[in-house]
């Protein structure tokens, strides 16, 4: 994307700020009066025509003003946006909400509160995704007998996070056999990432010296499901009603498509999984989002870390969002979540 002249940047920035505030096509006189009093409406109008020709603006109707395109928003976010850091009051409110929730309910429930706080402050959809265990290092594996043919598998990741899975076995196992199998699994799998375990478990469990062979075969045959941690419950959403109030979603088909996508959750989880390697705030705008239901939306996310395992928090809203405020908000909140979870 080529750079614009100073005049073009001034007009584009002013138009985007005006459109974010009003949700109405913006005319040259409005920009001249409110934002650029030293520039005549005629000059602004000519500049807007140039920006439209380059794809940064478009005119919904012949007699209307202009609106930003996704390309215009992208240039604004990358080159023009001036960050509005959260106020001390907002920071204190966010920290108090999350800290009190963490002390009362624990690490997993804090993510539900994160989504809620983001939605409250931004009036958009707040999102929070549980840590991605694929890169987590297995600390230990425990086998706990439940009923005659069921075992509880407890996986503990080095960060301290725990996942539990129930498996069925063909016949009743003695406690001694269960203990031997557990010891063998720990000897051969602990210290590896979940991704590595899924990839190489068959060769790592070859030629066992102890343990129950049938139970070990269950781990080999069902490794993809046993060590698969993505679940719709990993995604926390709040503030969906906020989006209904946005003028962009008065179109019933557009709104229905987005609500259905949010209800499915799997697509949103997949979208966020692709961003967990990002170490800075990530912003995708309109057509940059792959699901067609999100072409009218922007997604702002940042990642938090706990013991080398990463998760994501962020927001979803219309492309006409206040990026200058929301990008710093998500950045601050993600770092706060990392600090709070690391201090548990």
In short:
This protein is an alpha+beta fold. The protein contains 14 helices and 10 strands.
Per-chain topology:
Layout: H1 6-22, H2 28-34, H3 41-53, E1 57-58, E2 67-68, H4 70-80, H5 88-105, H6 107-122, E3 125-132, E4 138-147, E5 150-157, E6 162-168, H7 175-189, H8 194-204, H9 213-221, H10 223-226, E7 235-238, H11 240-244, H12 252-264, H13 266-273, E8 282-285, E9 297-306, E10 309-318, H14 323-342
Antiparallel strand pairs: 1-2, 3-7, 3-10, 4-5, 5-6, 8-9, 9-10
Helix pairs in contact: 1-3, 1-4, 2-3, 5-6, 5-14, 6-14
Task: Write up what this structure looks like.
The protein has 344 residues and is of the alpha+beta class. It has three domains: 6-80, Winged helix-like DNA-binding domain superfamily/Winged helix DNA-binding domain (Arc Repressor Mutant, subunit A), CATH 1.10.10.10; 88-132 and 231-342, Beta-Lactamase (2-Layer Sandwich), CATH 3.30.450; 135-226, 2-Layer Sandwich (Enolase-like, domain 1). Helices cover 49% and strands 19% of the residues. It is built from 14 helices and ten strands. The strands form three sheets. It has a five-stranded antiparallel sheet with strand order 7-3-10-9-8, sandwiched between helices. Strand 1 and strand 2 form a beta hairpin. Helix 1 (6-22) packs across helix 3, helix 1 packs across helix 4 (70-80) and helix 6 (107-122) runs antiparallel to helix 14. It is elongated and about 85 Å long. The model has no long low-confidence stretch (mean pLDDT 90).
């Amino acid at each position: 994307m080529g750079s614009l002249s100073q005049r073009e940047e001034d007009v584009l920035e002013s138009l985007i700020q005006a459109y974010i505030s009003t949700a109405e096509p913006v005319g040259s006189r409005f920009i001249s009066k409110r934002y650029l009093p030293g520039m005549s409406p005629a000059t602004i109008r000519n500049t807007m025509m140039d920006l439209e020709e380059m794809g940064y603006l478009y005119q919904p109707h012949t007699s209307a003003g202009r609106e930003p395109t996704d390309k215009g928003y992208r240039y604004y976010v990358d080159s023009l946006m001036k960050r509005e850091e959260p106020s001390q009051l907002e920071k204190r409110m966010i920290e108090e909400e999350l800290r009190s929730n963490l002390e009362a309910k624990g690490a997993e429930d804090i993510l539900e509160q994160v989504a809620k706080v983001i939605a409250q402050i931004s009036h958009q959809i707040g999102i929070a995704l549980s840590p991605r265990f694929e890169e987590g290092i297995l600390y230990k594996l425990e086998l706990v007998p439940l009923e005659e043919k069921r075992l509880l598998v407890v996986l503990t990741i080095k960060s301290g996070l725990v996942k539990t899975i129930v498996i069925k076995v063909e016949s009743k196992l003695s406690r001694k056999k269960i203990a031997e199998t557990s010891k063998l699994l720990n000897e051969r799998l602990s210290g590896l990432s979940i991704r590595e375990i899924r990839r190489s478990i068959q060769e790592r469990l070859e030629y066992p010296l102890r343990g129950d062979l049938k139970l070990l075969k269950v781990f080999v045959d069902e490794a993809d499901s046993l060590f698969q941690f993505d679940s719709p419950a990993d995604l926390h959403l709040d503030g969906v009603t906020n989006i209904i109030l946005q003028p962009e979603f008065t179109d019933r088909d557009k709104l229905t498509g987005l609500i259905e996508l949010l209800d499915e959750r799997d697509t949103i989880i997949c979208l966020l999984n692709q961003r967990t390697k990002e170490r800075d705030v990530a912003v995708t705008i309109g057509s940059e989002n792959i699901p067609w239901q999100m072409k009218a939306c922007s997604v702002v996310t940042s990642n938090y870390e706990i013991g080398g395992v990463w998760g994501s928090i962020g927001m979803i809203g219309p492309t006409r969002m206040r990026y200058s405020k929301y990008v710093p908000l998500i950045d601050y909140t993600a770092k706060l979540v990392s600090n709070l979870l690391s201090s548990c």
